[in-house]
Amino acid sequence: MANTIDIRRRIRSVKNTQQITKAMKMVSAAKLRRAQDRMFAARPYAAALREVLSSVATRVGEDEVAGHPLLQTREERNVLLVIVTADKGLCGAFNSNVIRAAMNTMRERNWNSVELLPIGRKALDYFRRRPIPIRREATQVFQALSLGTAQEIAKTLIADFVEERVDAVYAVYNEFKSIIAQNVRVERLLPLERDWDKAETEVDYLYEPDPQQILTGLLPKHIEFQLYRILLESAAAEQGARMTAMEAATKNASEMIDYLTLTYNRIRQASITKEIIEIVSGAAAAG
Description:
Elements: H1 2-57, H2 62-66, E1 78-84, H3 94-108, E2 113-119, H4 121-128, H5 147-162, E3 168-178, E4 181-190, H6 211-286
Parallel strand pairs: 1-2, 1-3
Antiparallel strand pairs: 3-4
Helix pairs in contact: 1-6, 5-6
């Protein structure tokens, strides 16, 4: 009897857990829709901003472009690594994949010194227990993610790079591919990648103010929006990963409930059969 009581208690516990995972799946599905809309709206803007930046850069003298502080390439001795994870768990391997990629990157690249900027509680909790210096931290970013939040973080990155406290800034994050797939990306934020050397310059334009001033204004905005896009990608990928994980957990709970119910019925049936046999045996002995 005690065995059946334990199984009934376990079935009830699994059903309660299943209700939680089902509710979390529905919440993640609703959040995913909003996160996707913001991310898909940001991608074309980021691409257009890059196109304008390339167009302007081709019309500025090579010496002026190369001399801009955000484009100066130095030997990567001191590097700042921006690691973007979630503030919460229950999203499968979403956080562990980013942390593993960050650790692998630090091992593979010949950096003399590495400092970290964890964005998200999971990365902060992990690296607090490791002997890697944390330059600054940012948590609870995704509760009310906005361009202003990305601008504040980007300004600190730009200041560290321009004042030569760091030689390069890299970001490790999950890029959203689909609801069930996320790609871990390691992307250099500073210095900016120069891919406009071969851009077309057949059509010329009149600029007001001059291209040099436009370039100087565009470069910081480009970095700010690239970081904002990275945060939006990570936010959408997080909700997709949590939705998939909760769906799998709900399915597993259903399978476990079926198995426990079958086991409970078998034990109960065996107990009833044993009692019937005892009654029949006692009646036969009395007769």
